[in-house]
Amino acid sequence: MGPRNRLLLWLLVGGPIAVFSLWAAFDNTRLYFVTLLNGLTLASLYFIVASGFTLVFGLMRNVNLAHGSLYLLGGYVGYVVAGITGWWVVALAVGFLAAALGGLLMQVLILRHMQGQELRQTMVTIGLSIVIADILLWIFTGQVHQLEAPEWLQGPIRGIPLINAYSAYRLSLLGFGIAIGIGLWWLLNRTRVGMMIRAGVDDRGMLAASGINVNRVFAITFALGAGLAGFGGVIGAVELSMVPGEDTRLLLVSLIVVIVGGMGSVPGAAIGAVILGLAETYGLAYAPTYSVVFTFVILILVLAFRPRGIMGGKG
Amino acid sequence: MSAAQWRRAMSTGLAGAAPRVPVGRTAAPSPAPAADPFAHSDAPRWLKHLWRTLAPRHVFTALLVLIFPFVATPFFTFQVASQSLVLGLIALSLTFLAGYGGMVSLAQMTVAGIAGYTMAVLGTSSSPEISLGWPWWVAVPAAVLLATVCSALIGWLSVRTEGIYTIMITLAIGVAFYYIVLQNYSVFNGFQGLRELKPPTVFGVQWRDPLPFYFLCLFWAGAGYFLVRYVVRAPFGIALQGIRDNPRRMEALGYGVVAHRVAAYALSGLLAAVAGILLAWYNALMTPGSVGTGWLINILVIAVLGGMKHPIGAFLGALVFVLLQTFAIDVIDRERFNLVIGTVFLAIVLFSPDGLLGLWAKLRSRLSPTQAMTSPQRRQP
Question: Looking at the domain that runs over B74-335, which CATH code has it been given?
Fold first, then answer.
């Protein structure tokens, strides 16, 4: 793509958004900025869930379609634990661990034995997602479960310029997202395991040939990716509440974030999550019946112009 | 070798050695030439062809599906047989795409849903403020056409990337379509959906009565089946299988890989669209639930259950699926159908990736070791 084409694309995409932003910011300043914040906090949740998905995909070429089920599993486990202990932070940790354990079992017991058969692995995860979703429905029924935010995060924060007050919990999501992002960056770029994962993404065979136990790297990555889904589940259990069907929604979110951002790239997942989060909240605020259409249009535009996603390389 | 020559060579000499030889076909012992009464007569070609390829089991199956509705109860004819045929036709579109084109699309139910919704919007339904009320002979072809075009577009979007990406992209498109019809009330009537979709009364026949509806489904399922059987042996189908096995080589030979793939999507879309119309008539309604994730995946389950190595697998899988849906829930809890189907699907994927047809082939080869069941074929990824 030449520089002129790129400029044209920026104008074509950025122009309408800039015009809309100007109009909306002057028309109803508070609504515009609250929506912006809503979008960014939602994007944090999306990023946490989707980064696990993209991590697993990047290393193992494994499309884990049970990712949404792991999200829901983490959420329900967190709900139970919070009910017993009364500590939200403990629920967060246990939700992470439960989903990580689930992912580890999936990888070690089943997926390891069909290495390289991508389609078969994907189908196994589909089967697992059906089974897990139905077992969760069996145990927790179809009722809406909602986790309460911990006391120190309840209530609004007042005195913010332009928007007056905003939910403390939602704002904390932003912090969680950024923390997870920095943590992942640190893990991938500054630790030995991260080095192995990055090497594995580039060339799995070479990594194995240089004496690394690839199976262990795979197991760690899968557990981490699944754990992030569970972590997101506990966070989302407060924000979005848990019902059967949320697994599909978060799976769709992960898919779109990863397709838009670039498959296997953690920064791509961040970009994709921000785009999707903003599109969804602005859509809901300004054109409720068509909000999903925006998501859809973004998906199609990216696929049409950058089939491998915004941050996607040659794959 | 030019593309045309290659095509000719593929369709004549090499067709038999094509990577995928249908399972049933290899097993059929070819009749001895001496027993062929048409060998030297000047009977029409189609009669000769029929004599050579027809085996007793074909005749048996044909008789079975024709006589079945007259002996079975209306419940079986409508709920079990018709539903199996319709779902089988949708699964067939996936079998064609995945088995012969190597592209596993999860959006086949979406294409069927687009056809159903388009027919509901253009034709008549219980929501007169939405439905335009066009006559069926305009609405139905328009719906099929639109769904086919949409399928080609979905194909064009997803074939730009390869392999495992296809399943992600098609799933994303399918689920996004579900949320669109769920949220939009002005065209799709949201959660309520569009109701009272009745097949028209043509030639004085009530087409939704069990018997006529069964034969309607049988006709279109049969048409789809034989179309796929024909296409996979035609030059286009052979080229498609070549692309499945080695896209780069086919590209080097001068084939338009993207064009072939998009055309495959369009053809599979046509099958799914016809089935989508039938499904809308069967349910008499279109709701977001009918294009939800559950059904997107169920189509894959059906196709994998039956086996993707032969078109008949789709219908076999659909029959098993519908029987499970109808009767397995009597044995265990009614609510736990998903657990049953999920477990069955997992078992099939884990232990017999070629589905029930694969099991059948294994069984036969074990019982009669002299007949080689396996042809030298690539392992389907």
Answer: 1.10.3470
